[in-house]
Amino acid sequence: MGTIVGISGNFSRPSKTRKLVETIVEAAATELGWESQVFDLVDAGPPLGATFGRKNAPSEIDRIWTAIETCDALVVGSPVYKASYTGLLKHLFDIIDMNALRGRPVLVAATAKAPSHELMIDHQFRPLFAFFRAIVVPGSVFALDQDFGPENEPTEGLRQRIASAVGTLVAVVR
After folding, report:
1. Where is the NADPH-dependent FMN reductase-like domain (predicted)?
2. Would you list the domain boundaries of the chain?
């Protein structure tokens, strides 16, 4: 049985970005019959910003790195700030070995306040995972505030976009 891991670059909870990543991961895990785990920057805690290597990293952060490095597929989402993913999310990946994601399917997602921020996916996210030589899944999921209802539940339109992206991820995995 495989494992799919979700990483969300949110700093607080509740979070639309975390909800988006959770929804994608749950749908993919169900379709593939895999186990799943979802983490966010809240799970890493404040020590992440002061961690500059694996050697003396706190166990809660090492647990996240280990999950990323050993999963069979990865979903990474971030809120868009200043036309990019969050800095601490980048820092989390900066410490991962450059070969750790080689050949691993990665589906990217983002949440933002403005439609123009969707460009971040192609201009920031995809190049990050291309550096790692991951298989960046064609398609992605981008969501605005209006794509979420009460309790951050995805709207029907967002659920359809998620289903399409998950279908592509499943095709890449199989």
Report:
1. 4-147
2. 3-173
